[in-house]
Amino acid sequence: MFNRTPSKKNETLDTTFSYPEVQKDHTARIDASSPRTAMITDQVEIKGMLAFDGALEFNGVFEGEIISQGTLTIGSEAVIKAEIQAAKVIIRGKVQGNITATESVEVCDNAELFGDVQTAKFIVAEAATFRGRSDPIEGKASAPEFAPVFRRLAASPSSSRSK
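^ that's the sequence the OP posted. Answer follows.
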């Protein structure tokens, strides 16, 4: 009736799935080889180390360490608790931690920075909050080195696990 095909009662289905391997390395690396700015939205929370080259705008919540040879823009919704090393840092949100920038640090209107700053050029807007100490870098210092970061990553317990 109704052109049904008879069902097979002893038929089994293959329900095995192949899941991709999940790495336990909690270090985010962003390679922005093009002049565009990579963006992390306000829906993201990260704890660990963030290393990138190029330009990054971070709008989420971050706790840890940020190392870059490029430009870090901290968005107006961002909340950062980190030690930061970069060429250039632009702050529009909230930052707690020390910053070393080879080129400049800019604290924009309504931004908050609680920490020490070492940079060649330091700009604090009139409506910004800055509590800390600032020390000038004479001349243009060399860019932060990634080698110590990658040595630490290679020595971490998560990298020695078999994949």
